[in-house]
Write a structure and sequence with these properties.
alpha/beta, Trna Endonuclease, Chain: A, domain 1, 56% helix, 364 residues, 13% strand
Length: 364
């Protein structure tokens, strides 16, 4: 028996069985979540309709909570507070907000009350209940809510990360940076590149003096690399900082170099502690040409540059990028003095990040 267990064939065999079990566990967990949320939706719908037809007040929810907890003592989720959340959740998407189809045409125009389409309702059921509560409590309309639902599903956000992204107003910052992507990249890639850019970028995790230098900003971002990657968005892999390249007979150092696995290209980031200047676009153009020739391989797409500045004048940026053939964008960033309390316990310490960076360099 021991000879069988030690064979490679057996190890592969048991690995396959374990993978099937884990896959089934994940599927079962998702199915349970979906069925629970469908139940919450139906309960909320019944309560809203009954309160309307029977003219019952809020005392109804207190009575329902008591009766359901008596009938199902082993089931959680029937507190007065949670049932009120169920009702708020249902009303947010059906009564208190405009239908998604109309929002695409004019977000501010009043529209008749209608339910969301089945596809949108199905999305709502794909995220945990706690995430749903966060979204309906903070989103201003259904379009914004569906944006955060989609982002949660795509990026597998925890509740803490979701809260951070909402509080940093990701919905309004996404794709607002000034770029030349439409004229320098093919259509699918330009759309995707615009989606990951934000304006401003929010570095809530940094505590840097206003008169700090670019080098200090760079070091701060590296110490909080995980948080910086969350702010950059999905698909970024860290390549290096002060990345050394040789052009001609001179040495040059790129502030931060990443690779985006969805765009299949290198992303060069230059950090500036002052207002954007036209010469920054020239320097970025130089770096992108060097990365494309010296680092990128044949399958890679054109490298993309991001200049992060403390402030930037829109007209100046548009002139600087107008005739530049290399894809680049310019965005501002803002620093805050301390880490938000809701994230403080969720994120790794500086020592943990330093250890991880050290392990990464050793593996490389």
């Amino acid at each position: 028996m021991s000879r069988i267990i030690n064979t490679t064939e057996y190890n592969n065999f048991i690995h396959q069985i374990k993978s099937k079990i884990r896959s089934t566990q994940i599927k079962a967990s998702i199915k349970v979540n979906v069925e629970m949320l469908k139940l919450y939706w139906d309960i909320a719908k019944d309560i809203v309709e009954k309160q309307k037809s029977a003219k019952w007040g809020d005392g109804l929810i207190k009575q329902i909570s008591k009766d359901l907890k008596d009938a199902f003592p082993n089931l959680k989720g029937f507190s007065v507070r949670n049932i009120k959340y169920m009702r708020q959740w249902f009303q947010f998407y059906t009564i208190g907000q405009q239908p998604v189809a109309q929002l695409e045409e004019d977000e501010k125009s009043p529209q008749p009350v209608r339910q969301l389409g089945q596809q949108s309702v199905a999305l709502i059921f794909q995220i945990p209940w706690g995430h749903n509560i966060v979204i309906i409590s903070q989103a201003k309309n259904t379009r914004e809510a569906l944006f955060y639902i989609n982002q949660t599903i795509e990026n597998n956000w925890s509740r803490a990360v979701l809260v951070h992204q909402i509080e940093s107003d990701l919905y309004r910052r996404k794709g607002k940076a000034i770029t030349n992507f439409q004229t320098t990249l093919p259509k699918p890639q330009s759309d995707l590149a615009n989606q990951f850019l934000k304006d401003p970028y929010t570095f809530d995790f940094l505590t840097i003096e206003e008169k700090a230098r670019e080098r200090e900003l760079e070091q701060g971002l590296l110490l909080h690399l995980r948080d910086f990657l969350i702010e950059l968005g999905r698909g970024f892999a860290f390549v290096g900082n002060q990345y050394h390249i040789v052009v001609g007979s001179k040495d040059y150092y790129i502030d931060l170099l990443f690779y985006n696995v969805h765009l299949h290209c290198y992303v060069v980031i230059e950090l500036k502690m002052d207002e954007f200047k036209p010469e920054y676009a020239g320097k970025m153009n130089f770096y992108l040409s060097a990365v494309d020739d010296l680092i990128a391989s044949e399958p890679d797409s054109a490298s993309i540059g991001i200049v992060l500045c403390k402030t930037r004048d829109k007209v100046t940026v548009e002139y600087a990028l107008r005739d530049t053939r290399k894809p680049m964008g310019v965005a501002a960033y803002r620093l805050t003095k301390s880490l938000p309390g809701k994230l403080r316990n969720e994120l790794p310490s500086i020592k943990e990040l330093e250890k991880e960076l050290g392990n990464t360099s050793k593996r490389g």
